[in-house]
Backbone:
């Protein structure tokens, strides 16, 4: 090899040109981000349109930036407790401001006007939103941050689930549910608990027949009985009390009896008070739905509060919801005080609670949201049950040889192919089989749910299989060697371990179902319905159907307003579902 | 604890216990068989109505006639799939021009160049592309892409056109190409790369000269899958491409050689097989009519084509899995 | 079978531990498990070649031999864990309590409830310590006092004092050695007659391993213990009887442990034990 005295030899090696290689690397990097970049630009535009940000006064943006965004970022930085991170965040925010302003002015001067964008909005989307995302990620690693986000997540998630429950009762008869619960579920639970406490296996075994008997009885009683408690009482008895009891049991399991009583009792009392007497007391809220939402939100929040105080770390994070609400109120107050003109976003309370309309400003998505919620609930139950059962069969009950082995291989190939069948063909299946042949009707919830369940079934099965396969074989062999039957091993060892993975896969598959449109058109789901459905066999619409219908309207207020708002609503729900799925997966991975 | 008995009870359990155990197995097997029944039901549903259709309309007319008008205002109905196939091919080929090169480059970047942290950010982001509802993509194409293209590159573009729709289909199918290709590239053993570096190859030469050829069957399988997905794509084209089944105008060059100008096809509205199905479904669903049956004939065509492509893709993928 | 008390100086292996270090001197003439002309195949490959042996009750019997010699396969034949492997084919008899376990009317699940098993790698279930130990009781529909039995079993596995205050915490939180003792407690809780151990200490550090060894010695008071090990010193220390398997799944020599380690009949066994082979 070359030495110091022999430098001439080194030059002989020369240098291989890397220009092509470097150009290729950047080309492939560009390709990797091309699709993401395109989607990001489109999402920015649809957000601007949906919230009417193009007409937002810069002062309005500034006000909320100062009252809401800055305190929130401050909270994240406080939680992360990292000086360099703070310095970097301030540099990015400040430097980004200058850079975006200069770059934007240059573009406008030399290239031309950019439609519906100004430098303030560009700054918001290009600098502040990514920065917020990054700081949330970093802040969540600190204790106050994780407590704060956990709290906000429970408040929002609880409210969403509570509302979803109340929506379900638009279609499902709550009186029948009341009877089934009272006559079937409660006695069965009592029998089960008695059997467990007194070591009477007979009582435990009897629980299932009791519940079935009770439910059958309920159907008959429903035909005869004419007087029922009010809806609020039914929710209280069948949902709020069990949820509160479950919360109390969880807290009690952590070892504190008084805390358990508080965690179950306080939300229950609050829900009862507001639900039964709220309207009478002139609070402006009340009624059965409020009761439901408060119970569903309050119990997990109370249990979470107990845990946070129990651990004693990051208690300050509990201030985050207060910070956000106070920021929003302060912003609203300042805007009012200085008379700053406010934009009129298309995503608004009216939009979410009103029926569709010919006029853009009155158009709403409510019936479609209700339709989507009901369809998703049914699809979730069907595809989860079928998906788990099938994947258990394929992973635990199969053999490599013989008839069962051949069946397994056939099923496996078939499932892979079903996953790739175009959704519009599933629509034809639904139309031909469920709507026409079996007579479930065109575009009813039953037809749509069955069709979508079959559509996402292959995806659910494949992900559930992966989850089951990831359970270590050691555990199965350990259980087998104890003399467990195959079902005992599956039930006691495999399924509990695989459950988070199965749940994650199912939620992701449901995300696919909620956005599907083509099969809905094929089975004749309504493009527009003006009132929420009242039974499983009435004509349904769903969010993507409504978006499809509106997208055909030629008026600009629909194209750039109402549809954008619909798209944003759908995407927010999707992000919420997928986010939950990813959180569940991460937590399960951390647990192991 | 107890003394061992001379002859422990090892008999099979009583009928009830075994029945219980068998019931669970049977139940799971029954659920699993539902997936099989789904396929049978799809084929049976498609076939039964498609056969009724072909009793009315000769297969020859369906396959070779160039006019598609199932619900004529005046004049006769005609069911020629050729115009629809041209529409579908237009979208598929244009989308492939986007998805295949971009997807392949993405796969190369992810498998050969990206750091593990870059990969952990890029891969979920790419998955988002496949998770956005297609009706939303259709809306984007109609409301943002078309006006943008009209304002800049193609002023003569019509409101509903094949180009915007195809671009969106292309973007949607990028992750399909990139994830399967990347799997294939990651499966290439490191020995091969080391051998290349040992011969003095640059990273570029190793990536394009060794890794890509070695994983070519995986890449091909991903291409077929992406194309099959593009063929079956419905909502993007329904929303953004319009619903006009048309044969492209054949022009003549100076020397009299006929050709089709791509802009004629791309900048104008068109109709794919899927759009034709949705259009019929939007009207008449009661069954028994010829357009209703035509929908199933189209569905059968689509099902057969995508099934063949998926099986083909599987067979090719099988090969690359065996190689390493 | 005579269990020796003498410690000859010409022991073939150089350890300072005593062989057959227990006082279970009374000869047991009762056979717990017996193999008769056992042949096992994995597809076309023969894993066990015509093995016949009688394993005495309430003794520790060690199966040793180089890896791939079939000793683990033999162990897994006893509780029919090999049934899980589809290509595995078994010919000949394994008698347990006078009954051939490969008879058609034998339910492998019922068989495994009589025979406990401890694996190479500790494999506690991701459940609480209590639920781990109670697992066998639960699946067998035990109707006595579960908590009492759990305590008994944990004491039997010499783990009670270490975990009695944290029965509710996960079995996975324990150290490797504790996990293995938990698995032993899990195996003895349903009161089996035989305990099979497949290299139970090979994944553990020496201190944890020696605790398990002490425990095995105690277990032999009540159970028949059959242990596969590749550690010859361990076999010498804890077992009463030793079976040496060499390549091809052949049982080469089977005798009292002292005899095997001090004066084996076969030259190959001597070579193996002294490390010249295997």
Residues:
């Amino acid at each position: 090899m070359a030495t110091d005295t022999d430098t001439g030899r080194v030059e002989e090696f020369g240098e291989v040109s890397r220009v092509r290689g470097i150009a290729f690397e950047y080309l492939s990097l560009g390709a990797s981000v091309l699709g993401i970049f395109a989607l990001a630009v489109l999402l920015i535009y649809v957000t601007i349109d949906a919230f009417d940000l193009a007409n937002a006064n810069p002062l309005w943006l500034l006000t909320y930036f100062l009252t809401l965004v800055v305190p929130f970022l401050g909270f994240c930085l406080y939680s992360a407790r990292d000086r360099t991170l703070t310095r970097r965040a301030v540099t990015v925010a400040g430097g980004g401001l200058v850079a975006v302003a200069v770059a934007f002015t240059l573009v406008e001067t030399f290239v031309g006007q950019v439609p519906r964008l100004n430098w303030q909005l560009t700054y918001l989307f290009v600098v502040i939103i990514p920065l917020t995302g990054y700081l949330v990620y970093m802040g969540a690693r600190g204790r106050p941050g994780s407590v704060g986000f956990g709290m906000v997540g429970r408040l929002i998630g609880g409210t969403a689930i509570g509302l979803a429950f109340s929506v379900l009762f638009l279609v499902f008869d709550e009186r029948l549910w009341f009877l089934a619960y009272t006559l079937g579920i409660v006695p069965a639970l009592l029998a089960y608990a008695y059997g467990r406490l007194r070591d009477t296996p007979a009582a435990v075994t009897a629980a299932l027949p009791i519940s079935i008997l009770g439910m059958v009885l309920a159907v008959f009683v429903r035909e005869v009985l004419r007087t029922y408690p009010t809806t609020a009482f039914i929710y209280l008895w069948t949902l709020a009390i069990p949820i509160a009891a479950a919360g109390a049991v969880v807290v009690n399991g952590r070892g504190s009896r008084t805390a358990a009583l508080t965690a179950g009792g306080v939300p229950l009392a609050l829900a009862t008070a507001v639900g039964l007497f709220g309207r009478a007391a002139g609070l402006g809220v009340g009624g059965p739905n409020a009761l439901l939402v408060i119970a569903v939100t309050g119990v997990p929040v109370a249990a979470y509060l107990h845990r946070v105080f129990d651990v004693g770390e990051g208690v300050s994070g509990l201030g985050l919801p207060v910070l956000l609400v106070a920021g929003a109120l302060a912003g609203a107050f300042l805007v009012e005080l200085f008379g700053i003109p406010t934009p009129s976003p298309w995503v608004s309370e009216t939009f979410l609670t009103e029926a569709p309309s010919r006029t853009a400003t009155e158009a709403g998505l409510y019936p479609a949201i209700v339709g989507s919620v009901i369809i998703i609930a049914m699809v979730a139950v069907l595809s989860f049950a079928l998906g788990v059962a099938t994947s258990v069969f394929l992973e635990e009950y199969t053999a490599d040889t013989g008839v069962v082995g051949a069946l397994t291989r056939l099923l496996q190939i078939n499932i892979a192919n079903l996953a790739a069948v175009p959704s519009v063909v599933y629509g034809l299946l639904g139309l031909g089989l469920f709507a026409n042949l079996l007579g479930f009707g065109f575009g009813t919830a039953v037809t749509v749910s069955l069709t979508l369940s079959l559509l996402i079934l292959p995806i659910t099965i494949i992900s559930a299989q992966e989850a089951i396969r990831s359970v270590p074989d050691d555990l199965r062999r350990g259980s087998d060697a104890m003399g467990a039957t195959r079902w005992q091993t599956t039930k006691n060892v495999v399924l509990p371990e695989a459950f988070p993975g199965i749940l994650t896969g199912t939620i992701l598959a449901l995300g696919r179902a909620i956005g599907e449109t083509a099969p809905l058109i094929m089975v004749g789901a309504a493009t527009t319905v003006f009132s929420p459905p009242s039974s499983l066999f009435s004509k349904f619409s769903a969010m993507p159907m409504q978006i499809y219908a509106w997208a055909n309207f030629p008026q600009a207020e629909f194209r750039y307003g109402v549809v954008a708002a619909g798209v944003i609503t759908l995407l927010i729900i999707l992000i919420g579902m997928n986010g939950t799925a990813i959180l569940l997966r991460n937590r399960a991975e951390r647990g192991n | 604890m107890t003394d061992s008995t001379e002859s422990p009870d090892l008999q099979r359990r009583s009928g009830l216990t075994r029945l219980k155990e068998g019931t669970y197995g049977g139940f799971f097997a029954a659920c699993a068989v539902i997936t099989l029944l789904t396929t049978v039901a799809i084929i049976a549903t498609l076939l039964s109505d498609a056969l009724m259709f072909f009793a009315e309309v000769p297969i020859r007319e369906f396959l070779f006639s160039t006019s598609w008008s199932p619900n004529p205002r005046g004049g006769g109905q005609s069911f020629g799939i050729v115009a629809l196939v041209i529409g579908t091919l237009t979208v598929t080929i244009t989308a492939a021009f986007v998805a295949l090169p971009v997807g392949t480059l993405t796969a190369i970047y992810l498998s050969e160049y990206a750091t593990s942290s870059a990969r952990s950010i890029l891969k979920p982001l790419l998955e988002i592309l496949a998770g956005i509802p297609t009706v939303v993509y259709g809306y984007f194409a109609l409301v943002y892409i078309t006006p943008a293209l009209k304002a800049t590159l193609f002023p003569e573009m019509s409101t509903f056109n094949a180009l915007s729709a195809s671009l969106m289909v292309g973007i949607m199918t990028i992750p399909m190409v990139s994830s399967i290709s990347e799997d294939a590239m990651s499966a290439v053993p490191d020995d091969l790369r080391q051998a290349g570096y040992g011969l003095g190859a640059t990273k570029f030469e190793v990536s394009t000269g060794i890794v890509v050829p070695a994983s070519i069957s995986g890449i091909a399988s991903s291409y077929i899958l992406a194309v099959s997905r593009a063929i079956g794509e419905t909502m993007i084209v329904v929303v953004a491409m319009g619903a006009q089944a048309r044969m492209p105008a054949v022009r003549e060059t100076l020397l009299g050689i006929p050709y089709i100008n791509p802009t004629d096809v791309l900048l104008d509205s068109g109709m794919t097989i899927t759009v034709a199905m949705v259009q019929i479904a939007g009207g008449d669903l009661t069954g028994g009519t010829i357009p209703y049956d035509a929908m199933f004939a189209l569905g059968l065509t689509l099902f057969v084509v995508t099934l063949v492509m998926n099986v083909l893709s599987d067979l090719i993928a099988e090969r690359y899995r065996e190689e390493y | 079978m005579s269990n020796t008390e003498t410690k000859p100086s010409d022991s073939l292996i150089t350890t300072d531990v005593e062989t057959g270090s227990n006082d279970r001197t009374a000869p047991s003439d009762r056979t717990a498990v017996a193999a008769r002309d056992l042949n096992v195949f994995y597809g076309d490959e023969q894993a066990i070649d015509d093995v016949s042996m009688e394993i005495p009750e309430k003794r520790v019997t060690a199966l040793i031999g180089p890896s791939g010699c079939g000793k683990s396969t033999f162990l897994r034949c006893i509780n029919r864990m090999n049934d899980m492997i589809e290509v595995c084919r078994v010919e000949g008899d394994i008698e347990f309590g006078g009954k051939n376990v490969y008879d058609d009317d034998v339910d492998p699940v019922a068989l495994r409830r009589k025979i406990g098993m401890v694996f190479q790698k500790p494999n506690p279930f991701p459940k609480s310590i209590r639920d781990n130990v109670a697992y066998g009781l639960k699946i067998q529909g035990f109707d006595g006092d579960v908590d009492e039995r759990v305590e008994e079993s944990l004491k039997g596995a010499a783990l009670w004092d270490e975990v009695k205050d944290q029965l509710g915490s996960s079995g996975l939180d324990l150290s490797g050695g504790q996990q293995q003792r938990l698995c032993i407690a899990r195996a003895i809780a349903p009161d089996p007659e035989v305990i099979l151990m497949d290299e139970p200490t090979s994944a553990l550090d020496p201190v944890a391993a020696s605790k398990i060894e002490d425990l095995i010695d105690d277990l032999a008071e009540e159970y028949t213990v059959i242990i596969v090990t590749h550690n010859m010193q361990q076999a010498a220390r804890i077992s009463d009887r030793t079976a040496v398997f060499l390549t091809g799944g052949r049982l080469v020599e089977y005798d009292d442990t002292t005899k095997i380690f001090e004066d084996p009949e076969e030259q190959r066994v001597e070579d193996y034990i002294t490390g010249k082979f295997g």
